[in-house]
Specification:
Number of helices: 12
Order of helices and strands: HHHHHHEHHHHHHE
Strand content: under 5%
Number of domains: 2
Radius of gyration: 22 Å
Largest sheet: 2 strands, parallel
Number of strands: 2
Mean pLDDT: 89
Helix content: 55-70%
Distance between the termini: 24 Å
Oligomer: single chain
Strand order of the largest sheet: 1-2
Length: 356
């Protein structure tokens, strides 16, 4: 019975991971459709309902008219235009609330049914703290664009929001794996475990630069491959900061360069990692690793191809339309999340030391 209880909690946590991934994708759609600043107020409780009458819609639209995005980009918007972008931001926030409901409701249910043991108390505390912080970071990010000067949210704040979502997803997945994967299905290999940690760290850096790319809309700054606008090493790398600079054009090129360079590094590391898992997968307890080692290998190939195709499709962006580029960008983001989750699964599968 104890095993069944643990599995039930684990599957609930995995449902949460899936919801976090969907929430992140909705955030991507919100960004790609320019919808992120359409709701100018943070109302955690009553904001679950969209405007229900003409007065509420007009009040919401008036709030949007006060910010720079409306003044400098969307000043021609009608109320119907505003409603179309409002929908995506509202859905993004609605899904976040539903995510909270699923976690709280599940927690209460399993608590009443006595499915939890003492070892779960600390992970749950951390889980709820991370969830609350994610919501706070999201609103602080939105606030960076709610002024009369800026037309988008700050790209560094956007990266913080995305990375914190991935940390939450990884922690939730790890918690689920602790309950779901039997000890006998884990392999002890300190070197491979350390190698996996290094790759995950590099991947988080890559995800951060990917978020910078999204926030700066840097894909449009260099829509060629393998070169970057005819150069393999842009001159701006030597004259401008790789993270922040007043020259947005130069910054976009630098971020683009870093994102591609880290991608090549990550791909190379994962090819070596896959080779290293070949020997480890021969261990008697490696039945799970035999399967999971293939996930990062296949996903990184797909991710590299998607990255190249997405960049090459950027000249065909049509403002205000969700077209080929936007679909590819969303798929690129989804595969990046799958790659991260697959590495977390492998990190759990290959432990550093034998169990006492």
């Amino acid at each position: 019975m104890e095993n069944k209880k643990k599995k039930a909690v684990a599957w609930w946590l995995l449902a949460g991971v899936i919801m976090i991934i969907i929430q992140t994708l909705l955030g991507g759609v919100t960004r790609l459709t320019g919808s992120g600043l359409s709701i100018t107020k943070w109302n955690p409780l009553f904001g679950i309902l969209p405007p229900l009458n003409a007065k509420q819609w007009n009040d919401a639209f008036e709030g949007y008219k006060q910010i720079g995005q409306f003044k400098y980009i969307n000043s021609s918007f009608s109320l119907d235009d505003f409603k179309s972008i409002f929908f995506w931001e509202w859905l993004h926030r609605f899904w976040a609330r539903m995510l909270g409901v699923v976690f709280v409701a599940g927690f209460v249910y399993f608590l009443v049914k006595k499915y939890f043991d003492r070892q779960m108390i600390r992970p749950f505390i951390v889980l709820f703290i991370l969830g609350g912080l994610q919501g706070l970071i999201g609103w602080l990010m939105v606030k960076t664009g709610l002024n009369s000067e800026d037309i988008h949210v700050n790209y560094i704040a956007l990266a913080c929001h995305f990375v914190s979502a991935m940390i939450l997803a990884c922690y939730t997945l790890w918690f689920a794996l602790q309950l779901l994967v039997p000890a006998e299905n884990r392999v002890t290999n300190t070197g491979l475990s350390n190698f996996t940690i290094i790759i995950i760290i590099v991947l988080f850096v890559q995800l951060t630069y990917g978020a910078f790319m999204a926030g700066l809309k840097a894909a449009m700054a260099a829509h060629t491959w393998p070169d970057i606008n005819g150069m393999y090493l842009p001159q701006t790398v030597f004259t401008n900061n790789l993270v922040h600079d007043d020259n947005i054009g130069a910054l976009s090129i630098n971020v683009h360069f870093m994102h591609r360079t880290i991608a090549y590094l990550l791909f190379t590391l994962l090819m070596f990692w896959f080779g290293a898992t070949s020997r480890a997968s021969r261990a008697p307890s490696a039945s799970l690793l035999v399967k999971t080692r293939w996930w990062p290998f296949l996903l990184v190939w797909l991710q590299v191809i998607l990255g190249i195709v997405t960049v090459l499709s950027s000249p065909y962006i049509v403002p205000g339309k969700f077209g080929t580029f936007e679909l590819l960008a969303e798929t690129h983001q989804l595969v990046a999340m799958f790659l991260l989750m697959s590495l977390v699964v492998n990190l759990y599968t290959v432990k550093r030391t034998a169990s006492k």
